Amino acid sequence: MSKQSEWTRRAVLRLAWVGVIASAALTIEPLFKYLTSKEDRQKSPLVVYKKPLSENSGWQNTAAARVWVKRDSSGVMALVATCTHLGCEVNYHAEKKEWICPCHASIYDEEGKTVSGPAPKALPRVAVQSQPDGSLIINTSKIIGMDTRV
Fold first, then answer.
1. Phi, psi of 139 (to 5 degrees)
2. Which residues are 114's β-sheet partners?
3. Any idea what the Cα angle at residue 14 is, between residues 8 and 20, rounded to 5°?
């Protein structure tokens, strides 16, 4: 006669709980590292932009990936391309003249004002200071109004 397995319902449930607890324990460390990572943060709130900006040239990316500058007839402006929904880096699409968040599809117009999506407010405009040598110093820690230019 064949021997039957001695697995009871209680034993199967205990095994399942051990699997759930083991899975949770294995995800805690990577999740904690991800949430506390400083990888995407800027080292300094001051960004220097040394390239010449011609009027109506469109948005130009600075060395700091999320800081963009533009010169129009009113002056120079800068914004930080970080979605105001959950902080993803938004991408500028020059052909559409809009900023699009790849994470949750928030859309901003060319000036950074919210058009659609879950984003609650416009992209942050930051202070710009023009230097005598023509370079710009952008202070990403100082949020300014949408109409402020240098």
1. -100, 100
2. 108
3. 140
Structure tokens at 50: 């040394």
> Per-residue pLDDT tens for 49-106?
888 887 777 888 887 778 999 888 888 899 999 999 888 899 999 899 999 999 898 9
DSSP 106: -
Closest residue by Cα to residue 61 from 95, 90, 102, 101: 90
Overall pTM > 0.90: no
Q: Residue 65 region, left (φ>0) first, then alpha (ψ -120 to 50), else beta? A: alpha
Tell me which DSSP letter residue 95 carries.
T
**Pairing of β 107-109 and β 98-100:** antiparallel
CB-based burial, 47-85: b 16+ in 10 Å, e otherwise: bebeeebeeeeebbebebebbbbbbeeeebbbbbbbbbb
